[in-house]
Amino acid sequence: VFPSLAQAQASVANEIYQELGQPSIFLFCPTEYCSSLCSPSPSQSCYLQTIGQELLPGIGVIWTGPKVVSQELSAALLEEVEAVLRRCPVIWDNLYANDYDCRRVFLGPYMGRAPGLMSRLHGLLLNPNCELQANFIPIHTLGTWFRSELRSCAHPDHAGMEVVAALGDSQGAQDGSYSPQEALELALHDWVAEINQQALEPGR
């Protein structure tokens, strides 16, 4: 019936979206959901070009970055994806995901995301560790990153700071940019307090 997979997917997604009354949040995950799955690149992918053209503008499109698990997200990549999809992507961030190898648990701070990214995102979803208790630091430091991004949006002169600030600048708190190390220290302080509180509860 359809000349391509992308047109079939867009048609079905559009019909469901309209049947549901065009909800404010409706997400579509493309078959090519990261750069490494695109041929030859996101901007030259016929599949993504069709999705961008055919998918109704109110539908959010999920993207994981350069890879399925992306260590870094850059403004340049998001610009490329935004152009081909004709909308800002919803980042499905697999930085902490360990469902592919449950022998590993990721406890480091949220990092590797260039400052000023929030203005290029339609949303951000964090795929956490499978172990609930292991996600205190990931979620806490994501919150610190988010607050830093909100400050950058309120003060545009901060939005163009060097990527090194997002990767560990120790002066982060002084200039308003995000510092993973400082975010980690804040998270550890609060996590210890949470653990101590739980230890005092009856039956613990």
UniProtKB/TrEMBL annotation:
Pfam families: NAGidase. PROSITE patterns: GH84. Residues 1-150 form the GH84 domain. InterPro entries: GH, Glycosyl_Hydrolase_84, O-GlcNAcase_cat. It comes from the Eukaryota. GO terms for biological process: glycoprotein metabolic process. GO terms for molecular function: beta-N-acetylglucosaminidase activity. SUPFAM superfamilies: (Trans)glycosidases. PANTHER family: O-GLCNACASE, PROTEIN O-GLCNACASE-LIKE. This is OGA GlcNAcase. It comes from Oriolus oriolus. The gene is Mgea5_1.
